[in-house]
Design brief:
This protein has 599 residues and is mostly helical. The chain has helices at residues 18-36, 44-74, 79-108, 111-118, 123-126, 129-137, 145-157, 159-172, 185-191, 197-213, 215-236, 246-252, 256-268, 270-284, 312-324, 328-339, 376-393, 407-428, 432-467, 474-489, 500-503, 517-530, 532-536, 540-550, 556-564, 571-598; strands spanning 174-176, 182-184, 343-344, 356-360, 365-369. A 3-stranded mixed beta sheet has the order 3-5-4, with helices on both faces. It is globular.
Length: 599
């Protein structure tokens, strides 16, 4: 089996499918219905119907948008896909505007009215309880209905246009590797994660050159996005000050004390991640890691032997075997994803960067996207995205509104899946070399998530602080990135990645800011969840599934209290997970020392 491409026919046959046009017409009809009854929203039945209408329209809109984005991911230059995405963005704005008055009423009306509205047999209505409670918490930061509608309308060709520009630029960039060969940016980026070590510096320097050529555009994008948000937060501060982190914390469903506890504990333990980097450099035969190889696979410890490459079907077999050790249902799920054509991993020209999991809201179909290169890192990326897909799958019978979990908890299942695969590979390793290769992935994760993710957060935090005073030019952004990079990586890396702010997609996502710390949260949280496997024995799997099902209707702190009996705002929770990471790093160190003594 070669790396597969999607079969998206469960939703639509093509971008020109007449059913897309029909569904768009239905969405527009829903918008009209919402507008027609807006003056009667204090009536219980009218509000219930409005919620159902909005959910029905949103489900269709999300499904069409996912279909278009899937096509655009395969080919970032696809004109029809980009045109449809643009059309849907405007339609989404219109739907948001039509529903804003109802949302405002739900956020401010007496609680007795809310209880009457929620007393309905439809899951689309009664399932809104948690979402409404969340909205009511931030009601004092809402603008007037007219202002909220205006803001939603302007975002389409304002804020979100900058994100589309970033996607269009990066989707068309060609990276020169050696003076003769050029590849797309996504291909060049994937080389940094693989084991083609001779090409990694060429790829990284090629990316740096491309980022420098487009630095003014990328700096403009970052400044525009931050400027838009800061202005919006200022306008929302009419009753109380709104900090630039507040929206992210609200969306992540965590409290500031939790974020602070996690980051402070991680910073106090950054020597663990740095030690992982030093050990990785030692295996590479280097004094320090380089910005082009810190995400790479492990070099072979045997002379003249290349690192193992996996065929796609081999990787699937490994993931299935690992998942089966948790429960056979998880392994069967992987089979279903492959057999139904819900994974797209075949390298294609003009392919978008990164990997992700999405779904068709109408059918609850999970979909996985990545670019297959055959490395062990690719296999773990595949496991990661299948973990996301499994999370969606176990919630498929729930009201859609109860499945919208935050990023912090979204990483629970994905990183859990990575840990399952790593431990499986470690358990079947036949030699110390094999064990070292498995533990390498632990080091790589520690280095990426305990060092690189905090770099992203602290850079973005400092950028927003300075952006209040005015725009930062490309050189200032490079300097800020370099300073933050050095503070966290210390002596474990030879030089900073000056243009990381430009090459990393996450900084230019228009819909959300601070698309970084949830990965550290998910990493440490999932380690804590994973540690429960042995303690809970056979009962673990069902408890794990129930935890996943709670992620869309509880704050993260409440999920942890319910399922783990711990407090996220205390350093102890985070320290216990970091200590487990430290143990893995020490295991690698001991094996390396033993190997050197006996060689």
């Amino acid at each position: 089996m070669t790396a597969p491409s999607w079969d998206l026919s469960i939703a639509y046959q093509s971008l020109s499918d007449e059913k897309i046009t029909q569904d768009i017409d239905l969405i527009q009809q829903c918008i009209v219905v919402l507008q027609q009854h807006v003056t009667r929203r204090e009536v219980t039945g009218v509000m219930q119907n409005a919620i159902q209408t909005k959910e029905a329209a949103g489900k269709l809109l999300a499904t069409i948008n996912t279909f278009a984005v899937c096509h655009a991911s395969q080919d970032a230059m696809s004109g029809p896909a980009k045109a449809l995405i643009g059309k849907l963005a405007k339609l989404s704005s219109e739907l948001t505007q039509a529903y804003t008055p109802y949302q405002d009423t739900l956020a401010t009306a007496p609680i007795e009215f809310i209880q009457e509205v929620l007393a309905h047999e439809s899951g689309d209505v009664y399932g809104q309880s948690f979402a409404i409670a969340c909205d009511r918490k931030v009601a004092d930061t809402k603008l007037s209905v007219t202002e909220e509608q205006l803001l939603a309308a302007m975002q389409v060709d304002g804020r979100d246009a900058w994100g589309r520009l970033y996607d269009n630029i990066t989707g068309s960039i060609q990276i020169e590797l050696d003076g003769e060969n050029t590849v797309g940016l996504s291909h060049a980026a994937s080389l940094l994660y693989g084991t083609e070590f001779a090409q990694q510096e060429l790829a990284w320097r090629g990316i740096q050159k491309a980022m420098e050529q487009h630095k003014e555009s990328f700096a403009a994008i970052l400044n525009a996005l931050a400027g838009w948000r800061l202005t919006e937060y200022q306008k929302r501060s009419y009753q109380k000050p709104v900090h630039f982190l507040d929206e992210s914390l609200h969306g992540s469903r965590i409290r500031s004390a939790t974020l602070e506890a996690m980051l402070v504990t991680t910073k106090n333990n950054r020597s663990v991640g740095q030690k992982a980097g030093h050990l990785m450099a030692q295996v590479h035969g280097l004094d320090t890691m380089k910005p082009w190889n810190h995400m790479a696979g492990m070099p072979s410890l045997k002379e003249n032997q290349s690192p193992k490459q996996y065929r796609f079907e081999e990787a699937i077999d490994v993931i299935k075997a690992a998942f089966a050790q948790v429960d056979q249902e998880m392994a069967d799920f992987v089979d279903m994803m492959v057999e139904n054509g819900w994974i797209d991993a075949e390298p294609t020209p003009n392919r978008r960067l990164g990997a992700y999991c999405t779904k068709f809201a109408a059918t609850r179909t999970p979909l996985v996207f990545m670019t297959w290169g055959g490395s062990r890192s690719d296999m773990l990326t595949l496991a990661h995205e299948l973990g996301h897909a499994f999370h969606n799958w176990v919630m498929r019978d729930m009201p859609l509104c109860q499945t919208r979990y935050p990023m912090t908890l979204a990483e629970t299942a994905s990183i859990f899946a990575e840990n399952v695969v790593r431990d499986y590979l470690l358990s079947v390793a036949e030699s110390d070399e094999d064990k070292l290769e498995m533990l390498w992935q632990e080091l790589s994760s520690a280095y990426a998530l305990m060092i690189n993710i905090p770099v992203r957060f602290e850079f973005e935090h400092a950028f927003y602080q300075r952006r209040k005073e005015g725009e930062l030019d490309a050189e200032q952004l490079c300097q800020l990135m370099s300073e933050t990079w050095k503070e966290w990586y210390g002596s474990s890396m030879s030089e900073s990645d000056r243009y990381f702010w430009a090459s990393k997609l996450h900084f230019s996502i228009s819909e959300v800011s601070f698309y970084n710390y949830p990965y550290l949260f998910g990493y440490l949280f999932s380690i804590g969840v994973y540690a429960q496997r042995e303690a809970k024995g056979e009962g673990f799997y069902r408890d794990y599934v129930e935890l996943l099902r709670d992620t869309g209707s509880m704050y993260a702190e409440d999920v942890v209290v319910k399922h783990l009996g711990m407090d996220l705002s205390k350093a102890e929770f985070w320290q216990q997970s970091i200590d487990l990471v430290k143990d893995k790093v020490s295991q690698f160190e001991a094996l390396i020392a033993l190997r050197e003594q006996t060689s």
